[in-house]
Amino acid sequence: MLQLSLILPSFNERDNLLILIPILQKLFHENKISYEIIVVDDDSPDLTWKAVQDQFAKQEEIHVIRRIGKKGLSSAVIDGMAVARGTYFAVMDADMQHDEKILPQMLQEMNEHEIVIGSRLVGDGGYGDWGIVRKLMSKGATLVAKLFLPIQVKDPMSGYFVIRRELFNEIGDKINPIGFKILLEFLGRKKGIRSKEVGYVFRTRIHGATKMSGSVIQNYLAALYDIRFGKYVSLTFISYAIVGFLGYSINLFSRYLFSFFFRDSSKLFTFAFTSISTSATLAFVFSIMNNYFLNNYWTFRRVKNTGFYQNLRGLTIFVVISLIGLFIQLSVWNYSILLYKQSQIGSENLFINIVCNFIGIVFATATNFYLNKNITWNLKD
Ligand code: GDD
Ligand code: MN
Question: What is the pTM of this model?
Answer without folding.
Answer: 0.72
